[in-house]
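pasting for ref
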Amino acid sequence: MVEIHLRRSHAALMLASCLLITLDGEVSAQAASACTTMRKINVGVSVSPPNVVHTSPYVAKELGYFAKRCIDVNIVQFEGGQSATSAAAAAQGSAIVSVSDVAIGRGLKVKQIWALAPRMPQAYVVSPEVKTAADLKGKRLSATGGGVGGFNWRMGREVLRTAKLTVDDAQFIAAATAGRLPGLVAGQIDGVALHPEDVFLAKKQKPTLNLLVQLVELMPLYMFNAYGASTEWIGRDRALLRDTIAAMIEANRTIYKERDKVVPIMVKATEKPQDAVEYAWDVLTKNCIWSVNEGFTRERTLWSIENSVSTGDIEADKKPTFDQVVELSLAKEAVDLAGGRVTIGKCTE
């Protein structure tokens, strides 16, 4: 009887979630019909298909937060936030995408306008025989999402540095981002940075895999993911960028507060099993991975810049300042439009 009751309760919960999404869709349609003109914009996500942390645009679109601001958004998936195609989209002003201090230090005329997720959610997961970072010598490590210079390559480099090893001490394997998890499980690679939902699936499929380090513990002040736009675009259509960010800020706040409302959207967007998505939601919300305000702190940005200089990713004489990297006033305008600064639990950024 208890099992039957639980099943009925679960079914009722899922029905309620579907009704909420349907109602939000109706609200979205009504909001769009009230607009004299729908403003079009491309919003990039860093992975194809997206990880849970990157689903804020999908939540904002599904729940009508873009439409009520008269925005017709097209979500574009990239093979890595620091890939050549993502950088080209940023420079050309064809999409707002993840932008790093490195790109700016190398001359890309873009600025960060909102930090979607300041802290890294990933863990570095390794093959069963790897017990310490020193054991990675001679191993095959992931360079998915951009190859040399991409996020996984950089994180592998940082893990190697803890054992006084360099990138020359391991073999980096470039592949599509979708290949990270199956490559590790199949033994094609020995180390990769995985998002929480993929950590869950990896351990489920191959329990002998080891979690070597949480990347946020390795580099607590590293700026993980900040949306950026070309400086020309910021000057030309600041209002559209501000309103787009405000919609995603509203989505992030909803993500923290309404789990059962957003998880079905995340499952659809990520194409991952619900139990893995629910696990990721728990990890991301408990650790304040998603921002609820601007997402920027001067300390975090400056640390990331100095780290990029120390690793040679940015030449010392081309080191950008905080204001050259971050358009903080635009992020603040978006927060004001979303209702002002908030604190959700222990999350303040």
